[in-house]
Amino acid sequence: MLDQYRRHIDTIVMNELEISLFPIPGSVALPHSIVPLHIFEPRYRKMIKDSIENNRRIGVAHTVRVISSPKMNQNTSLEEQLSSNQETYEAYPVFSAGLAEILETLPDGRLIVQIKMDSRYQIVEEIQQIPYKIVCSIPYLDEDPGFTDQTFSHHSIEKMRRHLDQLFIDLAIDSVQKEVMEKYVTSEEWARLDLEDYSFAIYSLVIFPPDVLQKVLELRSSAARISFLIDAISENFLQ
Asked: Which of 33, 53, 54, 94 is the 20 to 30 Å CA partner of 173?
């Protein structure tokens, strides 16, 4: 069984993808979320259009730090902008990505875009920097619970799930909000979410600082993500 799991991991590692990377300070996208973007920089307009044309995913990544500052001014031509280093960031190596859709092109060329995040990915290497980043990545998947997590049974995770739903209802600040939350977490659509989808969807109901959300993004099991949120609520860690 262990050999089978290792072969599964080897297959994942071989499944490398080229992904256009959009580093945005303070932006952490979780799988299955829809990220709206207002694109005005020429390099990122090109990134969006190129990626859609080539059916290439776009990743949105939180940033560790600024690597270099822009060296252009208002007189810099479009050609110079697309062939020169601009402000660049060191991105966190784990991010979510998905296919982009242009919702609207404004008269001045700005784009209104949304990206439907399908999954998490991990950077293997950077293969392009100008005019925008392209990285070689592999899927960043949860670890097999049969090998890595003996703490939680399926029954105990489902129990945590019900407990967390009730916590959201109890956190409502008034009767109206409580009624809305109760209707939401007892809906058929909410109940149909499998544990993995649920463990990401619950974070749409709360607000965390980006550095904390990045830690959540990197957790490798549904149980860990659900448990983390229960602990955070218990510790009054919410903003």
From this structure: 33
